[in-house]
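Chain X:
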Amino acid sequence: PPKWTNVPSDVVNECTLDLSSSDPEFSDPCLSDVNFTYHGYELVEQTSCITKVKQTWTAQDSCHEGITFHQYVTKHDTTPPTLSPSSLDPIEVSCDSFSDWSPQVLTGEDNCGEGPEDVYAGEPIKYSQKCEDDFHLLYTWSYSDDCGLSTKVTQVVHVYDSAAPEFDVQVDAELDAHCHNYTEAPEVTAT
């Protein structure tokens, strides 16, 4: 019977199912006519992120003695997506300007995806609250691909109050009044 002399190795690719490998090579000691056939491929495994097929070749001589070779080709995404920027430094925002501040939009990209996407931060977690206008917020950006591989970026925002309250009206620091003729202290508010 013929014998395989050079055969392609099994193939694993991240994002594509590459069936373009070279044909196996064979020899026949009797130098008889050999019928060499590629039988195509059949699906072996199919999940959301793994596709595995089996390619088959046969070689049969004129005496109907034959050999069969199988090559397995797999598409398997094992690389998590990325977020850009990949990290964010902590920042501080004063309470009087926090209403105008918003977390930035990151860019998510997957090696097997169609292109970059905008990724927005989820709802922040508030912690270390000292008072109404002094607290920390933890923002998280998460991005996942079709295989469940994911990545995330976090940022801590410290919202702080650095200004003392101010009176809304100006009053004299001292008032002179006689014991039978005095005025009531003015009503003031502070913000």
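Chain Y:
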Amino acid sequence: TLHAAFDGLPAQRIHGDCHGGNIVIHRGEVSGFIDLDHLQIGPPIYDLGHYLADEVKNQLADPPELWLRHFHLVVEGYRAESSLGAAEIAALWPSMIFSQLLFVSWFLRHHNPEATERNIAVLAWIYEREREIRGGLAALGRDTVVHVAVAPGRLAARLADEARRLEELRGRRADGAGVGVRQETIGTKDD
């Protein structure tokens, strides 16, 4: 069950609505998060699963290989910043399913058929690719706790490069549109 996937995982304050539109990028690096009205205590893996499930919405029309490549880079990037135990890695796919069930429920209650259908399509996409997603995570789950040595600046640059490659593969300009991370310029008078 979904509950069993989260049982025993470490809990802390999490965003609860972690998606590209709520991530602030400054000079190519994550500088913060917005829309903090869903803050709660829960397993941090939920935020990663929520983000990855939301990324599917942006890439439904693309070949699955593109999203799966992006998926692995995001997980690698997360691991560069925070350790992931085997139980957390095993809970990633269920957290993606859980996130989409919440979205479907929310949009149904708010009588938004278009968003409901889109989120049902995402839920089906994730469900149908369980084997591919879990298979890619299996190698990660072999280590009890894994730390990857990547400097945070390099991580942001790597994710930005991947976003540009994804856009090029889609045949669009590499300006950050549609890659799931809203890029903004935030500065002070001195910048």
